[in-house]
UniProtKB/TrEMBL annotation:
Protein name as it appears in the record: DUF922 domain-containing protein
Region called Disordered, residue ranges: 49-68
Organism, as annotated: Rhizobium beringeri
Family matches, as InterPro entries: DUF922 (IPR010321)
Source species taxonomy: Bacteria, Pseudomonadati, Pseudomonadota, Alphaproteobacteria, Hyphomicrobiales
Signal peptide (from-to): 1-26
Keywords for the protein's UniProt record, in alphabetical order: Coiled coil, Signal
Coiled-coil zones: 125-153
Any one Pfam family match given in the protein's UniProt record, by short name: DUF922
Amino acid sequence: MPLAVRYMVLPIAFSIALCLCSPVAAEVIASKSYSYFDIRGKTADELDRELSRRGPTASGSSARHPGATKIRFGGEATYIQDNGRCRVGNVKVTVHTQIILPRWSSRKGASKELSMIWDALSSDIKRHEERHAEIARDQARAMERAIRALRQQRSCEAMQELVSDESARGIEEHDRQQARFDRVEAVNFQKRMLRLLNNRINGRAGEK
């Protein structure tokens, strides 16, 4: 059962407010939710077909995957204008991740071997998607720091342009990190699954 996971990113959009005086503050708000799709089967081939038929699709593609993480960035910034200069005041970056995972609904009566394979696979899918969400949260914090550190400008229009440019760079870096993570995971998938299965086999042997 190949593991090919994708994620979807919506562009960050900063809302703007001007103020004459305001305390400088920064905030990152991260939220996460889960949803599931059911699959059925009594053999590894049947589960594989179900994942290919029922799994979530990636943005811009009709291909199905065993799991996915949808990511949405947003944000707000206020600008402080003082003595002919404009600087960033309050900054808030938001990131919401929705993790989509498979759920085996016909497990009852399945063989112990298939259950062990599924437990190893499903745990790896969940770990993989959790890491996608973690990358998004880390990048939201990096974007907040970068925006907060921007230098003052002669006008708030110029300051707004800098914030927009910085948020775009942050999204591009986020996409690069996510793609790099997927490449590494794809290369190591077979080794990782063998290690997980061996650990579960050894754990069962130790319980006897």
